[in-house]
Amino acid sequence: MKTGQICIGLESTAHTFGASIVDADGNIFSDVKDIYKAPKGSGIHPREASRHHSNIANEVIQKALDEAKVKYTELDIVSYSAGPGIGPCLRVGATAARALSLKLNKPLVPVNHAIGHIELGCLLTGTTDPVNLLVSGGHTMILGFNSGKWRAFGETLDLTIGQLIDQIGRYAGYSSPAGATIEKLASKSENYLRLPYSVKGNDVSFSGMLTSAKKMIDKGEKVEDVCFSLQETAYAMLAEVTERALSFLEKKEVIITGGVAASTRLKEMLEDMCNERDSKLSVIPRNYAGDCGAQIAWTGILAYNSGIKVSVDESWVRQSWRLDRVDVKWRK
Amino acid sequence: MAKIINVGAEATVTVTEWFGISAISKRRDVKKYRRQEIDEFIRSNRTLKEANMLNRVREKVDVPSIYFVDLRQSEIIMENIDGTKVRDVLTKDESNKADIGRIIGEMVAILHKNHIIHGDLTTSNMIIRKNGSICLIDFGLSSTSKKLEDKGVDIRLFKGILQSAHNDVFNVVFNNFKKGYKSVMKNSTEEIFSIVKKIEMRGRYARVD
Fold it and tell me: Which pTM does this prediction carry?
């Protein structure tokens, strides 16, 4: 059934430990994940999250192989998320990947997690040369591909959109990731409270909005109203900078990737914007929007076939590894 | 029908006439994606800011002259600049990248010296006239500030657009930008450029090297 190269991808940058089996034609045979849940009102604790990952790693990997009906010995490539992310978490995935690579004597491929989000999005939506709005807990970037790299046209100057949502969620007493909760609360309100709208050129800034939103909660404004206003303002800012990128780069495609791509309201706004510009909007399917093994496995195949691999001795993880520093040799 | 010459990210620009002179009309379009109250505030606020600032800087740097402002329509009627965007000139082999960088550097420094922050120094907001002068447009995101930090943010945006869209000519343009900037700003140049570095380091996952 499976003829081409088969790659296992391990994802462990933050709260998710994931494993996935993908082949060189882009078929995803399995994508298994287990998410560390922080206690209500607090964020990811690096030690606790990495402990979760090491407890669950075996089970997740085994399940990914079982669901794909692939044996260990049938694997051709082992890829892992090498950054950016939380050090202790990254090291769990890297350690598991090294063990697999050594045991099976198969090449080991480090993958940039953020590039993984983009490449998986392009694979699943058939998008070729988009403006990419990468929105998650770790990233808020507007990107375009140009001479060998994904270049940041604009990005957040402080918090990411995911942090903004999670932090306001936590402040209101919900557990992270809080995107779905916030969206649900927001849908119950139509009462807009003014929040700072901060677009600085091609960049956005969310820290002022977080402070204002917290103050509103302190003052006793309804949480539904605050969530509604937060979404309306923050997503409008993202739509604006994405439109700026479309216009400047003269492109006709937009893709939303990353965990916040699961937001219905964000999609709606971007759709309105794209329609008016005769541009096509694609959104990564919801079940692949958040961190997952498939983004690593697929990018692992692309990277390996353009000559990227690393020996176990020289393998590494990097907490800070900007995606615009990665040479993307598989793209023209 | 008015001829549309540019549908930018936030405004539609059409050719028009103003008491017999060729002019352009820049109208900030309604954005359906954002709520009406946000949209109206942003459009009128930026139009007002742009008109005020153009008026304020016109004797300091090359900017279009304003003929008429209609806040309710978020429309400005202004001089029709005959030239090519720096964005499009930088991709041509024959253009003089060093000169372009230097002239932009001087202009930005003159603004900064007067504590004016342009707020949107992208290469599509700079038009090279036939006589070589560079006209700076789109002051909708401008502000006034004495803080070196804000001047740094302004420069970082320009640097960022060079890195992402004009990577092949980044070094020559940015080095000459700094030379031009320094010729006006003198001693505080190094301090401002070191702040630019600091701002970059604040970026997500940025590394020291």
Answer: 0.94
